[in-house]
Amino acid sequence: MAIIWNFIPAWLKYLLAGIIAACIIAGGGYLIGKREGRQEVKTEQLQSDINAERERTKDDAKLRSLSNYDFCVLSLRRRGMQSEDCEQLRGVAAE
């Protein structure tokens, strides 16, 4: 190996060393960028989960405050059904 190394001109050795160093630096930069990208995606996912949970909590608070009749009407309307069956709940107190 040393014999072959002696036949290679010095400028070519420096060129090879520079190319290898550039590859190492580029690879390291790529891995760092990839890690930061993953962290950013995780942060965005957590933020959307928090927003969804807040929205669910907000909806639950609204639903808890509804009377049985209002809850029945709301549920049936969401399903596209008539709310006439809810009339029997009109005077019933919420539990």
What descriptive keywords fit this protein?
95 residues; mainly alpha; transmembrane helix; membrane; transmembrane
Give a structural overview:
This protein has 95 residues and is mainly alpha-helical. It has one domain (14-89). The protein is built from three helices and no strands. The termini are far apart. The model has no long low-confidence stretch (mean pLDDT 80). Keywords: Membrane, Transmembrane, Transmembrane helix.
Tell me the distance between the termini: 87 Å
- Domain module count: 1
- Low-confidence stretches are none
What portion of residues belong to β-strands? under 5%
Overall 3D form = rod-shaped
- What is the average per-residue confidence, as pLDDT, rounded to a whole number? 80
The count of strands amounts to: 0
* Count, helices: 3
Query: What is the ordering of alpha helices and beta strands?
Result: HHH
Cα-based radius of gyration, to the nearest Å: 34 Å
**Which range best describes the helical content: under 10%, 10-25%, 25-40%, 40-55%, 55-70% or over 70%?**
over 70%
Structural class: mainly alpha
What's the main sheet like? none
Keywords: Membrane, Transmembrane, Transmembrane helix
Transmembrane segments: 12-32
